[in-house]
Design a protein that fits this description.
- This protein is 0% helix and 58% strand.
- The radius of gyration is 14 Å and the shape is elongated.
- By secondary structure, the protein is an all-beta fold.
- The strands form 2 sheets. Strands 2, 4, 5, 6, 9, 10 and 11 form a 7-stranded mixed beta sheet that branches. Strands 1-3-8-7 form a 4-stranded antiparallel beta sheet, with no helix packed on it.
């Protein structure tokens, strides 16, 4: 059973910083992409940032220059450093991983964490 466990959310003042972490555990063969999505009340879930196993990164325009995604392939972890936070960054942040479970018949499967709340007070 594969699990993604997030940590690091909380309440911060506008202009402040937070660091989110996500660890993937369980029977994992290969992880392709890992990333972060967010969903604000009344809005659709949207991509924040993602990174491939080769190190390619992709950011939403709204967070470019403020957020940095990093990944430790050896530890199956991904982090999101969020600086210069704005009120509009308030959302539940979800970790995401596209991976092959360690099973002979496995297919590329998408897994989600349980989500962590980030609240930015203006």
């Amino acid at each position: 059973q594969v699990q993604l466990v997030e940590s690091g959310g909380g309440l911060v003042q506008a202009g402040g910083s937070l660091r989110l972490s996500c660890a993937a555990s369980g029977s994992i063969a290969v992880i392709n992409a890992m990333g972060w999505y967010r969903q604000a009340p009344g809005k659709q879930r949207e991509l924040v940032a993602e990174t491939t196993s080769g190190g390619t990164t992709n950011y939403a325009d709204s967070v470019k220059g403020r957020f940095t995604i990093s990944r430790d392939n050896a530890k199956n972890t991904v982090h999101l450093q969020m600086d210069s936070l704005k009120a509009e960054d308030t959302a539940v942040y979800y970790c995401n991983a596209d991976l092959y479970p360690d099973d002979p018949d496995s297919l590329l499967t998408i897994y989600w964490g349980q989500g962590t709340q980030v609240t930015v007070a203006s």
